Amino acid sequence: MTRPIHTPDVFDERFHRIARFAIPVVLGLVYGYWAAANRRGGGPITGWNILFGFVTALAFIVLCIAVATLAPLLKRELHSGVKSAFAGASVGFLYSQSDDSVLRSAVLGLVVAAAIFVVFFYRYYTREDAEGNRIR
Questions:
Q1: Is 1 a residue whose pLDDT tops 70?
Q2: From CA 110, how far away is CA 89, in angstroms rounded?
Q3: For a Cys-Cys bond, which of 15, 84, 106, 124 suits 11, CB 3.0-4.6 Å?
Q4: What is the model's pTM?
């Protein structure tokens, strides 16, 4: 019987605690800037545009932390579904800010969500048992 190989964790618990919140904050700020830039379409930067960017960033940060905290508690199908729905909705919202068709942004969001669902489901299916316990 072979024992599973465990890779060493090169970061300590403090680093993981900080990264759990720092990564969504950085991603949220980039996302908010990107959404505001798409919305203004190359026009002048206004106060409303800056406010829109910060509100979008705040919403993204809150949702990202919620998904990262709650999704691992779900079974692998729902875990994959929640993460892929968040990614698809995020991409669809970004695209919708660029004055293109709402139908196109919805289709793009669904395509991205479906692709990410397949990737995450495969990852969790090959690394968890039916109860969600890691096997590798």
A1: no
A2: 8
A3: 15
A4: 0.83
